[in-house]
Design goal:
Distance between the termini: 29 Å
Number of domains: 1
Largest sheet: 2 strands, antiparallel
Number of strands: 2
Radius of gyration: 19 Å
Structural class: mainly alpha
Strand content: under 5%
Order of helices and strands: HHHEHEHHHHHH
Helix content: over 70%
Length: about 230
């Protein structure tokens, strides 16, 4: 039984790292990687469970470890903040929910944009383009584990990389008419930058403790669960 559990854990770990490698390949070999993704035509469920959630799990674990052990440095004005276990768990949950909202809303917006360009696109195509397109930004969240790095730095670098690879990805996955391809790419990149930036702003202010009343209410509920 123990050997089976170890084998299962090993397979899951290998699966998670394979998704991280896929995100890296999109950065360094975007054309070939997007061609493979477009040919596979995976479902939303497959992309979410086999690619996104393993990748997000790795980055969230790294960020949780950093917050638990090192805290976060917000400069001379605010200084260094340390976080206890309930605060880290609540933040990780918020980060996950915000990320999923960006993905699903972003896919909806991309599909709507495609329709305005006289295209007939499916939600699956839009979700695929958004999920793989934003994967560099998710991957760069590993840097959030380090206390001296501002949360805006990984987001900015990751977003730049995401916009760069989406240049190759949106036309291949969405298959718009050639005259509309560049317009669809530009507008979708701008919308995803705004939605992901809004999510980053929300999680950043949460780390700063700006949502005092809401955070206190949630931590008063969650805190006792960790004291048992």
């Amino acid at each position: 039984m123990r050997r089976a559990n170890v084998l299962s854990f090993g397979l899951q770990t290998a699966k998670q790292f394979s998704q991280m490698i896929k995100a890296i390949l999109l950065i360094f070999d975007p054309v070939r990687s997007w061609d493979t993704i477009a040919q596979d035509k995976r479902s939303v469920t497959f992309i979410l469970t086999a690619f996104l959630l393993p990748l997000l799990a790795l980055t969230l674990l790294a960020e949780a470890y950093g917050l638990s052990n090192w805290g976060k440095n917000f400069g001379d004005v605010i200084g260094h903040k340390q976080y206890n276990r309930p605060e880290v768990v609540v933040y990780v949950a918020l980060q996950l929910v915000a990320t999923l909202l960006v993905l699903f809303i972003g896919a909806k917006l991309l599909k709507a944009l495609g329709d305005t360009f006289h295209g007939r696109h499916t939600y699956t195509q839009a979700f695929c383009a958004v999920a793989y397109g934003l994967s560099p930004m998710f991957l760069l969240r590993f840097l959030d584990a380090f206390p001296s790095i501002s949360p805006w730095v990984p987001w900015a670098i990751g977003m730049i990389l995401s916009v760069a690879i989406m240049y190759h990805g949106v036309p291949r996955v969405m298959e718009p008419d050639p005259p509309h391809a560049f317009g669809l790419y530009i507008t979708s990149a701008l919308l995803l930058a705004m939605t992901s930036g809004l999510a980053r702003f929300l999680t950043y202010w949460w780390l700063l403790g700006k949502f005092t009343t809401v955070q206190k209410a949630i931590l008063d509920f969650v805190g006792p669960l960790f004291a048992r």
